[in-house]
Amino acid sequence: MGKLILLATWLILCSCESKPTVVQPASQDSNISNASTPSTTETAHEAIVEEILQTTKYTYLFLDEGGVKRWIAIARAEVNKGEKVKYTGGLRMANFKSTELNRNFEELLLVSNIQRASDRPAGNLFQEIKEGGSPIEKEKITIAKGSISLIDLFRSPEKYAGKKVLVSGRCIKINYQIMGKNWIHLEDESGASKTLTITSQSALEPGKSGSFEGTITLNKDFGAGYQYDVILEDAVLK
To answer: Are 70 and 27 in contact, with CB atoms under 8 Å apart?
Structure first.
């Protein structure tokens, strides 16, 4: 089961360029050499981009985080040297070979949750660049009657635990059919400091607005250390 989760997590970033010899979860600890169990808590690392390598689908960043330097890989994005970024979680890969760059990374952190440090919370993720390089066009969010806001949900999650709720927002990222489900990351404009992860058989294109109805689960653990404080499960697009 653990190996399946690790594979699924890498698929969440996109698809691997080549097979690494070792796959290991990376922790929130600032010292990557002591990596143990990852987490999806909102504690964010902040680092400065020192070097950028672009490939067709991925962007490799060499970061300086208070003197701790490491390579990370994200879905292709436009990033500037000297820019500050924030990220959470990730998977540590040892001896990772990029065939397109013809380069072997002794240690590489695969990151899907990343944003510019200057962005508002939960906003303007790097995944706003579509495959092919064109920007994602954002629709105006339409709030369905009876929807709860993300800020209310995250302020009082216990109030909604185990209950069916309706949420409205804009998709910032979707990962198709991971462990038999689509994984949708939804933002709204309520001032919430994070996005809501939704599992569903329905799909919503990044940039599009929609409303989902599903069941709120707290402290969901999918194994391999991947935990969600709040997640909307088995949701249906209304």
So the answer is: no
